[in-house]
């Protein structure tokens, strides 16, 4: 069941935006930003819950049935999804020689296959509306790699190819598909890094600091707006210069 309430300042005709994995970190900051911009925001999460009185629906992106059911519920309760931010993801980090088949499968299912499932389902409503915005949250590691993250980097690189291919399929229908590639952002995921790893990472970031979730959310908010209608198939880094434009 969709829970939460739509912000009372939103117009009844506000476009519906789905943010997967929107219950924390970059996803939560994005959901809050989109709500501020006037979208009717629904968060997709495995728990079916979201903080800050955001609308929420239970969604497991590794299951086609769960994705289809979640979209159907949103469409019934709020209307067609015209904006989708694919942010849900997991990590199972270890050196490849120690990486199990399960480590590989789980990360690819959540971070790549799950996004493609959501893209496929979101396409239906967007084609009918002849309008849509999809933003896929990748990572700087798609281009620069990361030791101990072969599975994660492969999934995040796959989002670039998938997003650009769909951008070519749907561009003439008023639908854009773009990829945002954050660097090291202060989230629960980076908080778990060892201090030695944090120091090594910071030494390679020209900005000399971690990014903030709001800095990523601001860019995503723009890409979801009408003003970004001529930006399509782009990969935009938010990484303090770590990837130097990749």
Structure description:
The protein is of the alpha/beta class. It is globular. The longest helix has 29 residues, at 101-129. The chain starts with 15 loop residues before the first strand and ends in an 8-residue tail after the last strand. α1 (25-36) crosses α8, α2 (64-77) packs parallel to α3 and α3 packs parallel to α5 (150-170). The chain has a seven-stranded parallel sheet, with helices on both faces. It has helices at residues 25-36, 64-77, 101-129, 141-144, 150-170, 188-191, 195-203, 213-223; strands at residues 16-20, 40-45, 55-58, 81-86, 132-137, 175-182, 235-238. It has one domain (16-237): NAD(P)-binding Rossmann-like Domain (Rossmann fold), CATH 3.40.50. It has eight helices and seven strands.
Q: Low-confidence parts, pLDDT < 50 over ≥5 residues?
A: 1-12
User: What is the CATH C level class, in words?
Assistant: Alpha Beta
Order of helices and strands: EHEEHEHEHHEHHHE
The Rg value, from CA coordinates, equals 17 Å
Summarize the amount of helix as a percent range. Answer: 40-55%
Give the N-to-C terminal Cα separation: 40 Å
What number of domains? 1
Features:
Rossmann fold, 7 strands, disordered N terminus
Topology:
Blueprint lengths: L15 E5 L4 H12 L3 E6 L9 E4 L5 H14 L3 E6 L14 H29 L2 E6 L3 H4 L5 H21 L4 E8 L5 H4 L3 H9 L9 H11 L11 E4 L8
Parallel strand pairs: 1-2, 1-4, 2-3, 4-5, 5-6, 6-7
Helix pairs in contact: 1-8, 2-3, 3-5
